[in-house]
């Protein structure tokens, strides 16, 4: 089932369950998806891989907001943002664990023939091409840097 269909099905289920927080978050996701589709015009609607990227961006911005709200002492807003993050992350594919990430980095270094830190861009591009959906590139960067140093 595509992510678009999952959004629709989950939204219907949340509305029937009268789960207002989940309904609001799912409506926010579908609105953002419509914005992304409109920005992609005249091309067809974006694919699931791009939707995953959109969801990661939404989760990242909410994590940043959580930190700011914690600094400001706004626990009510922290709770709201964390609930939204939980809904958004429910649609994301399972992320690689530390060991799998190390192995993927080793394989990408061997594949690209990287020898030093100057080849980091090639390694990161290879990682993104192979593992974009399951690899957190922000966590992979330091691992690649350490492996190439």
Your description of this structure?
This protein has helices at 3-16, 20-40, 48-71, 75-89, 98-112, 120-131, 137-148. 76% of the residues lie in helices and 0% in strands. The chain has 149 residues and is an all-alpha fold. The protein is built from seven helices and no strands. The chain folds into two domains: 3-89, Uncharacterised protein YqeY/AIM41, N-terminal domain (Hypothetical Protein Yqey, Chain: A, domain1), CATH 1.10.1510; 98-148, Arc Repressor Mutant, subunit A. It is globular and about 55 Å long. Helix 2 packs across helix 3 (48-71). The longest helix has 24 residues, at 48-71.
Radius of gyration: 18 Å
Indicate the low-confidence ranges by residue numbers: none
How many beta-strand segments? Answer: 0
Helix content, binned percent: over 70%
CATH-level-2 architecture of the largest domain: Orthogonal Bundle
Regarding quaternary structure, what we see is single chain
Number of domains: 2
CATH topology of the largest domain: Hypothetical Protein Yqey, Chain: A, domain1
From the N-terminal CA to the C-terminal CA, the straight-line distance is 42 Å
User: Which structural category fits the helices and strands?
Assistant: mainly alpha
Beta fraction of the residues? under 5%
């Amino acid at each position: 089932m595509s992510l678009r269909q999952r959004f629709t099905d989950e939204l219907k289920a949340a509305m029937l369950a009268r789960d207002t927080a989940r309904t609001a978050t799912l409506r926010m996701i579908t609105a953002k998806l419509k914005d992304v589709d409109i920005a992609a015009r005249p091309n067809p609607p974006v694919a699931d891989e791009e939707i995953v990227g959109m969801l990661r961006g939404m989760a990242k911005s909410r994590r940043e907001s959580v930190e700011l709200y914690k600094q400001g002492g706004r626990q009510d807003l922290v709770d709201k943002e964390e609930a939204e993050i939980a809904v958004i992350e429910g649609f994301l594919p399972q992320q690689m664990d530390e060991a799998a990430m190390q192995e993927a980095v080793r394989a990408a270094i061997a594949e690209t023939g990287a020898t030093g830190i100057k080849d980091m861009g090639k390694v990161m591009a290879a990682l993104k091409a192979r593992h974009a959906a399951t690899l957190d590139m922000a966590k992979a960067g330091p691992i690649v840097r350490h492996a190439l140093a």
